[in-house]
Write a structure and sequence with these properties.
Layout: H1 3-14, H2 20-32, H3 35-62, H4 81-93, E1 106-107, E2 110-111, H5 114-118, H6 132-135, E3 143-156, E4 163-173, E5 180-185, E6 191-196
Antiparallel strand pairs: 1-2, 3-4, 5-6
Helix pairs in contact: 1-2, 1-3
Length: 207
């Protein structure tokens, strides 16, 4: 019997898929080579050891609790009619909701759009100019403009009048750095900062 045919028979026996004819064929091979039974025993021991390791790994995995998938959709993904109406009202008041026009880079009052945004709406709880402290000590040209606001959530006001709209104010800033870095991973999978060669400056159109 060839070694390949013997391995196939042993594999069937170890896996529990052997037919009576397979046992008869292996016994016939062992009649001329008694070492066949030793090889069958070693293969069975290796199979049992592998199965034991797999069972331990599965037991450890069973001990890990996977958080149940939340059926609650993000609040900002559930847009009702009143939320859409609140967004349109803010756009009409000049906050810059998805506007296509670009605001001038800077004005004497500071980064463009701050004054318009600070005065938007009639709610007396609307915060006043929040970016004054940012301009203090900032080099000229650091703040370029304010980008259109991003709506995050809208809820009915607690007093029943109007809506409370939550939005993100985005500032476009400019800064100069001496060296750029990107985060890579080393051979151990740990994050490391690697210097990046930026090359010579390329002229670009102004923002």
């Amino acid at each position: 019997m060839s070694s390949v045919a013997e391995e196939i028979l042993i594999s069937r026996i170890v896996d529990g898929n052997a037919a009576p004819a397979d046992w008869s064929a292996l016994a016939a091979a062992a009649a001329s080579d008694p070492e066949v039974w030793a090889r069958l025993a070693r293969t069975g021991e290796a199979q049992n050891a592998l199965r034991a390791q797999l069972e331990r790994a599965l037991e450890a995995a069973d001990c890990v609790e996977i958080p149940a998938a939340s059926s609650r959709r993000p609040r900002w993904s559930i847009w009702t009619g009143w939320a859409a109406a609140a967004a349109l009202a803010l756009a009409w008041l000049g906050i810059g909701w998805n506007r296509g026009d670009r605001v001038p880079a800077e004005s004497p009052a500071g980064p463009a759009g701050f004054d318009q945004l600070a005065g938007a709406g009639s709610d007396p709880t609307t915060p006043a100019e929040p970016a004054g402290f940012l301009r203090e000590g900032a080099p000229p040209g650091h703040f370029l403009e304010e980008l259109p606001a991003v709506m995050v959530d809208a809820r009915p006001a607690s007093d029943g009048n109007g809506q409370e709209v939550y939005y993100i104010r985005r500032l476009l800033e400019r800064a100069r750095v001496d060296q750029m870095y990107q985060v890579n991973r080393n051979e151990l999978g740990q994050p490391v900062a690697v210097p990046v060669s930026t090359g010579p400056a390329v002229p670009r159109p102004p923002l």
